[in-house]
Each structure stands twice: as C-alpha cells, then as structure tokens.
Specification:
The complex is a heterodimer of chains A (124) and B (363). Helices cover 15% and strands 35% of the residues of chain A. Chain A contains three helices and nine strands. Chain A is globular. The model of chain B has no long low-confidence stretch (mean pLDDT 97). Chain B is globular, with a radius of gyration of 21 Å. The N and C termini of chain B lie far apart (43 Å). In chain B, helix 2 crosses helix 7. By secondary structure, chain B is an alpha+beta fold. Chain B folds into three domains: 145 residues, Gyrase A, domain 2 (2-Layer Sandwich); 83 residues, 2-Layer Sandwich (Alpha-Beta Plaits), CATH 3.30.70; 74 residues, Elongation Factor Tu (Ef-tu), domain 3 (Beta Barrel), CATH 2.40.30. Classes of the chains: A alpha+beta (124), B alpha+beta (363).
Chain lengths: 124, 363
Amino acid sequence: MYPEELKYTDDHEWIRVENGKAYVGLTQYAQEQLGDVVFVELPDVGEEFEMGDSFGVVESVKTVSDLFMPVGGKVVEINEDLEDSPEAVNEDPYGDGWIVAIEIADKSQLDQLMDSEAYQKTLE
Amino acid sequence: MTRKTPLYERHVELGGKVVDFAGYKLPVQFAGIIEEHKAVRNDVGIFDVSHMGEFEFRGPQALEAVQKLIANNAAKLEINQVLYTPMCYPNGGVVDDLLVYRLDKDRFLFVVNAANLEKDWDWVQENTKEFDVEIENQSFETGQVALQGPKAQELLQKIYDRDLGQIKFFWLEKEGKISGKDCIVSRTGYTGEDGFEIYARNEDLVDIFDAIWDAGKEFNLQPCGLGARDTLRFEAALPLYGHELSQDINPFEARLKIFVDLEKGDFIGRDALVEVSEKGVEKRIAGIEMKDKGIPRQGYPVEVDGEEVGFVTSGTFSPTLGKNLGIVMVKKEFAKAGSNLDIRIRKRLLGAEVVKLPFYKRR
C-alpha cells in the first residue's frame, strides 16, 4: 500500500527519484479519500515550483483538491494519459497514476519528507 | 449535536463513508459514486433519506393553511396524491422546495429539506396562526428510504403487500405494509428514475431496510450515498436548495414556473410572482456542457466577452453522459441553447455551450 522506496508528504503525495528525475503522485490513502477521480489539471512542462506550491488540481466527482510539490523543482514531464484516464489515479496510484515528473532543485529537501513507516503512522 | 439515522449501523456494516450532513451522520458513498450512480440508472439503488423533515397538518383548515404557504395548488390534489412545490417569501424568493402529500381530506404532510428544517418549521408556524389547524413536526420520529431505479418496482413488490402498479407517478399508498410494519409508499424520487420513497417510524425502518436488502440480492441492489444522490438529481436537473434555489432566486428564474399557480388564490409571494410573470425574469437557470477541459463547480463566475453574466449553481462530471456539465444562473439573454459562455475555473477561462435541460431523461 505504501512502497518502501518512496518518500511521502503530509499532503498525501509520494515522490520517487529515478535516473535524475523524480516522479510525483497521490498516495493510496489520498485516492481512497478522494473517491472516483474524474479530472486532473496538470501544469505545463518547464514550469518551476517551490516546495509546497500548488502545481495542479485533482477533482473527484464531489471534490476539488490542490496538488502540492513535495520538493521544489522544474516540471520535465506530465502524465498526459490522465486527460483521458484520470481513473488511473485510483486504480494504480504508484504506477500509471503518476502525475508529474520533476527535476529537483535541491535534493536536500528530500530529507524533510517521510519514509513509508513514518507516513503510515500519520494515518493512524 | 449530530444525529444518527435508524440505519446508521447498516451504513457502517456496508462500508459507507459517513460524513456530517445537515445535522445527521450519513453515508456520502459506499462502493463509489460512479458505480452507485450507474446502479440506479441501470438496476436499482437504495438511499437513506431519513434526514428529510416531515410536518403533518391536521384540522378543518389544513388545506387553507397549506394553500397560504405554497405556490402550487394543493386544492387540486386528490387524497393520496403528491405535489411538488416551492414555498416562497413575500418577495418571491424561495424558503424551500418540498413535497406535499395529501393523506386525507384535512390531512397533509410536508416533506422538506433537512438543511432547512428549523427555518421551515419557524416559517410554517409563524404563518398559519390564523387557521384552525394542528401542525406536528414528525421529523425526528420518521425515517425514510428511497428505492430508485428501473428495477425498483419489481424488487419492492416482492415484499410489499399491495399492488405497486396501482401507485402512479406522484401518488402514494398509506395502507400497505413491509415486514408487517406500517409505511407510506409514494412513487416519487430525486434521481430521474422510476422508484419509490418509503416513510416509516424510526423503530420500524431497520426491519423495512433489511427486508428490501434481502429481496434486493437478486436485483443487484446497491446501497447509495449522498454523492450519487447529488449526481443523479443533477443529471435530471432537479433543483437543490442552496444551489438552484435560494431566498434570492424565485421559482420563475429556477425554471419552476409549472409549479406555481397564480390563479389558485392568494399565497405568500403571489404579488411578487405576478409581477415577475408580467415583467419576465432578468436571469434564469440554464444547462451548460464544457467544450474545454474542466469541471464547472458551484460559485464559479460565468462570463461573456470578459463581462460577468452569472455563476455556476451546480456542476460535475456526469457519470451517465461522460461529460463535464453544469447548471448556471445567467442573464436571460445568455440562457438560450447554443449560446457560448466562458466559465472562470481558477486562473483559466474555459469555453462552454448552453444545452437544453434536463441533461438526462429516462426512456
């Protein structure tokens, strides 16, 4: 439910560092709380954000929620498949449901995030 | 204080996600809003609507009291017939929208929105003092479930001891029983599908629910929450108080003209509504379909050529039609089907087109 290799935020996002870029998405808990995701508003590639900035919006049938940057950085890739299949956020939150990939500005910010165990404690 | 309905334990057992709504703990969803929504459109779903308020009017002047309060004409009701009506302020704005059940010649039941319960109760009492009528607030002793969907009748008939085929749309039966328990069954609902609303005493509602639930297995009966109730009523363009109706919106603006009878005699709000009917409205409700990608939500501004011309009253992704749709309140000249509107969604201005309401009509 909460893979060991990821880092987590209080805003229920995960980040996975991979070959110089980092993928960002919503956690299992977040997608369960949202319910059926029907729309994801993505940023543009090249946009830069600080840690904690809102970079997009995820909408379920009933709710509209901001997406927040786990760490500062530049958007290098967006998951365009979510335009036609936003339900991937529910069905495969750590895989096909990824939202953006970023180039991290300051890797030391990763140290401020939680590991799987610490994140799961916040959910209890 | 947040109240639990008689079915609270059932919601928890069935995996409902329970939230506080209008003073009650109620499930917002079970399996998921889209799945529940489709179950009602294709098969059958059950909703706990025990939060709805009920006021019973009894006495020689019950009809006069009801007639003064509502904009529609209760004198036309036969015994066991049901009426939908706005209840207005003197300025034509809406106190609430409700159902009126004629239980007998001198006996009526108002079914009102839970969110307006206190306000409605005060309003009803204040404005009926001159009549020989007794009004009882039964809201906290009365439970209600709604069984909705194309298979609702076939399911309910298995456990109901009267012929449901005899209950026409917007009629009721008050003599029948489910599991030996008294209940009022009406062919009414808030989903745009065929179906029934079943009223019973709180202490009888669990037995009635269990009987329906057991009979529902072969029909793939789905428990449904507030989320699906909202998307279903939205597609059918049934107004929701606080969205398409409010103290600042009159029934003509809300597309409810056919539920206002200006010829029936005096009622609260009549003078103002006569004037509106003569002069015409300045703004009105319309449906929109998004052309650009985005979901219109309540309160988002509606613009034309950079000028604000109204606001969104409700909006969502439509599970049945697979489109992002909205209901808006806009200046009359922009409410015609085919008009192009812009919806301000966060920082973006997204295109939409006015379409005819309702979005969905059952075949």
